[in-house]
Automatic annotation (TrEMBL):
Membrane-spanning parts: 12-32
Protein name: Uncharacterized protein
Keywords: Membrane, Transmembrane, Transmembrane helix
Annotated organism of origin: Kineococcus rhizosphaerae
Length: 35
C-alpha cells in the first residue's frame, strides 16, 4: 500500500464493515423483539 491513500481506503473499508456489523446486530435484535 504505497502512500496514505491506501491507508485511507483500508480505513474506509473497516468503517463500512463496522457499520454493516452494527446494522446486522440491530436487525437481529429488532427481529427477536418482534417475535
Amino acid at each position: 500500500m504505497p502512500g496514505p491513500s491506501g491507508g485511507r481506503k483500508l480505513a474506509v473499508l473497516g468503517g463500512l464493515m463496522v457499520l454493516f456489523i452494527a446494522a446486522l446486530a440491530l436487525l437481529s435484535t429488532w427481529a427477536l423483539n418482534r417475535g
